[in-house]
Automatic annotation (TrEMBL):
This is DNA-binding transcriptional LysR family regulator. Residues 2-59 form the HTH lysR-type domain. PROSITE patterns: HTH_LYSR. The lineage of its organism: Bacteria, Pseudomonadati, Pseudomonadota, Gammaproteobacteria, Oceanospirillales. Keywords: DNA-binding, Transcription, Transcription regulation. It comes from Halomonas stenophila. It comes from the Bacteria.
Amino acid sequence: MPPLDDLAFFQQLARAGSLTATARELGLSLSAVSKRLKQLEARLGVALATRTTRRLTLTAEGELYLARGGAILEELVELEETLADHRAELSGPLRINATFGFGRRHVAPLLSAFCRRHPRLEAALELTNFPVSLADQGFDIGIRVGEPPDSRLVARRILSNRRVLCASPAYVAAMPPLDSPADLVAHPCLVLRENASDYALWRFERREGPREERAVKVGGPLASNDGEVIRRLARDGHGVALRSWWDVHEDLAAGRLVEVLPGWRGVRADFHAVYDQRRHVPLRIRAFIAYLEQEMVGRVPPVARPTTTGESPT
């Protein structure tokens, strides 16, 4: 069996993509990294990569060594984590990715409480505008809206959620008629910009009767790339917003916002904790996801039926 440190070295080399980047990450000289790669190739009797100081390209043998070596290292990690699971105290790294709004409001305080219970954890929460690849960025858990399209990920629902069409009571009192999703073209819609488009595509489904879905292109004079800004603009009476229940349920309960278009509702947008599919999932990952499932129930009430347009919610 080849030395494990050689496998780990080559994994890091391939991930860094160049001799220079590897030397920088390991705190070694460029010549030392180059010499170690040559020694590894001499021992194996094959060329693993063609390289310059700026770029590394794996040979077919290098690709095989990377893939099989990675599997060996992963099995070793799983073995050690299985042994660690027999200890009562959780420990080790826990890296989580979530979007800014949901991550700040809910994931951060729950992670804080969880780490207070398990002080030997080394946790990191990274917030981004958009979800990132767990494998590429080295995250253990991602918090996502909707089922993940990647079949290699396992999804556990931590919160039932829907989009809610809402506006301020002042706007509702003076707004043009709004009886179907198509009527939104006559309203200033507060668009959450997630790309360079000048409009958003809002999706609805009929509340009662035969299943029917509608998608409407909407736009308006005010937009933002931040959901909290959109919620504030809606509360200030600038137009209609389509926001998640978790984000606006307190404003609806307090009467700062009113749900409109009661015959229709936004489509489901449940939150899931996702993680890579593997034979052994470390206990710290399973325990934190179970904690999210348990605690989120108390943080966000179930989605309520809307009041009649213009009526203050109870």
